[in-house]
Amino acid sequence: MNLVIWFNNPGGGHGISLLNTSLGVLKNLYGGVRIVGGIFPKEMKVTGIAVLDKEDLKTLNFDLILVVGDNAQGEAFFTGNDSKRESFFASVLHEAEQLNLNTDKIIADRIVLVPNFTLEKYKKLRRSKLSILSMNCFAGLLYHRFALPFLSPTINMYTSEEDFLEFLKNPVENVRGEFNLVKTEFNDVLGFEYPVFKICESEWHMNHYKDFEMAKNKWRERSQRINWFNTLVTMYTESYKVLAEFDKLPFAKKVCFVPFDTNLESGYYLDLTKMATPELWRAVNGTATGEVPFYDMWDMLLYGKKTPLM
């Protein structure tokens, strides 16, 4: 495999460590990996690797561009105007398109480290145009981890179990509903007031938005991107009754995380005894970020399949 490295930040050991780990995975999967060059920040001192100009990529023979040092959060989390918070990976894809490069050959280093990764699975996932509708920030965390475009409005917000089930009864119409400001609440972590909107019959806490108009605009903008032909719906609950109701919903791919064992197809058991802090929402978010690898995320995202890892 001929590999090009596109490096974002010379910020020391973390990026290099992640690069080395990613290279190890690729070598194990695909045999020999040969670094044919790299694109680096001007201030970065480089030895042992050919320094390329972006234009060189038009004629260079390579199999893969590995993007190293992508923004830790990218667009997924912000506290204000996110138009300037494009992730480094997204900016690389944009530049690659301008150079008429095959973007299927570009991948972020963190994706290589997702358990059971293969390039074939990653390409299939990107081409599938997956929309994830979630009760909390699970969708945003997954979109970031897999460096996927945001094809869902349910990012940077949360709702209750009851309201999410209500929303899922007719999601195509509900995403188009009118916004009514119900109240404001204070985000203790980020330190600002955020809006709580009622959209049709469900309330959504837009807890990452201090700009109320932006919260509405982002919902509407991302709602137009939903791929109703490939949608994954996710939530979590400690209630057997809620799980049973969720399991009856007519979605091909649906996931409900629960802290108890279950035979229901949509029920994904999370063993909280394996958590340092045994809270269900932490386990759910940890599943998305990879901190607690309970399930094969490729199988979940691609097929709605429940494949335990531990």
3D architecture notes:
The structure is a single chain. By secondary structure, the chain is of the alpha/beta class. The protein has helices at 13-30, 88-98, 109-112, 119-128, 138-145, 161-169, 171-174, 212-223, 240-247, 280-289, 297-303, and strands spanning 2-7, 34-39, 64-68, 106-108, 131-134, 179-187, 192-199, 202-205, 231-236, 253-258, 267-269. The strands form three sheets. Strands 2-1-3-4 form a four-stranded parallel β-sheet, sandwiched between helices. It has a four-stranded parallel β-sheet with strand order 5-9-10-11, with helices on both faces. α5 packs parallel to α10 (280-289). The longest helix has 18 residues, at 13-30.
Helices, by number, come to 11
Beta percentage is 15-25%
Q: Could you list the spans in which at least 5 consecutive residues all have pLDDT below 50?
A: 72-85
- Compute the gyration radius: what is it? 21 Å
What is the topological layout?
Blueprint: E1 2-7, H1 13-30, E2 34-39, E3 64-68, H2 88-98, E4 106-108, H3 109-112, H4 119-128, E5 131-134, H5 138-145, H6 161-169, H7 171-174, E6 179-187, E7 192-199, E8 202-205, H8 212-223, E9 231-236, H9 240-247, E10 253-258, E11 267-269, H10 280-289, H11 297-303
Parallel strand pairs: 1-2, 1-3, 3-4, 5-9, 9-10, 10-11
Antiparallel strand pairs: 6-7, 7-8
